[in-house]
Design a protein that fits this description.
The protein has a seven-stranded mixed β-sheet with strand order 3-2-1-4-5-7-6, covered by helices on one side. The radius of gyration is 15 Å and the shape is globular. It has helices at residues 12-23, 37-49, 70-76, 112-122, 136-139, 142-146, 152-157, and strands at 27-31, 53-58, 84-88, 101-106, 126-132, 162-166, 172-176. The protein is built from seven helices and seven strands. It has one domain (12-176): Rossmann fold. A hairpin with a 5-residue loop joins strand 6 (162-166) and strand 7 (172-176). The chain is α/β, with parallel strands linked by helices and 181 residues long. Helix 1 (12-23) packs parallel to helix 2 (37-49).
């Protein structure tokens, strides 16, 4: 499948799959699904765990940069249509729909400003947050420089939650703040 994902090159799917197998989440929310690479790997583990569901949010072809259609995501994830729900909408204020989630994945063309707006309101509601980026290498991608976006790595250093950055590129950051549910 054409996943259109920077995660694919270094097999981050195995990480997503493994985390879901280990923590056995009941509710997963994904902000930024695109073609479904991470959702696919999480759904495979959810199915093997024999419980849980995933709510996928994205603008799909309404996103002006590197994206794909909602139909492409649905086709790629058809095998897991019984556990995945799709919502074509902006990621802002989605946390208001949930009292709590076990796992939140954020992949929205991440940079410090968007994480401040999107991630911070989720902190008291999410047990574990996986977000794309966090490494210095990821902060230096062409579009971050071109659009003068603030560093995720620097942003993380000033936050009161526990996190770990996992390389290689594009890197992911795991956040556990001890709150959640």
């Amino acid at each position: 499948m054409d996943w259109k994902s920077s995660y694919e090159k270094n097999d981050f799917g195995t990480l997503f799959y493994s985390l879901v197998k280990i923590i056995k989440p009941d509710k997963i929310v994904e902000l930024g699904t695109k073609a479904g690479y991470s959702a696919y790997h999480m759904a495979k583990a959810v199915k093997e765990n024999d419980f849980g569901s995933i709510d996928c949010y994205d603008l799909w072809d309404g996103y002006p940069f590197n994206s794909c259609s909602l139909n492409t995501a649905k086709e790629n994830l058809q095998e897991y249509s019984d556990i995945i729900s799709f919502f074509k909408t902006d990621a802002r204020k989605i946390e208001e729909k949930y009292n709590s989630v076990d796992l939140l994945h954020i992949d929205l063309g991440n940079h410090a400003e968007i994480l401040e707006e999107i991630l911070i309101p989720w902190l008291p509601k999410a047990k574990l947050i996986i977000m794309e980026g966090g490494s210095i290498e990821r902060d230096n991608v062409e579009w971050m420089k071109k659009y003068n976006k603030k560093s995720i790595n620097q942003w993380l250093k000033n936050k009161p939650f526990n996190y770990v950055i996992i390389n290689p590129f594009p890197s992911v950051t795991l956040i556990e703040n001890g709150k959640g549910h």
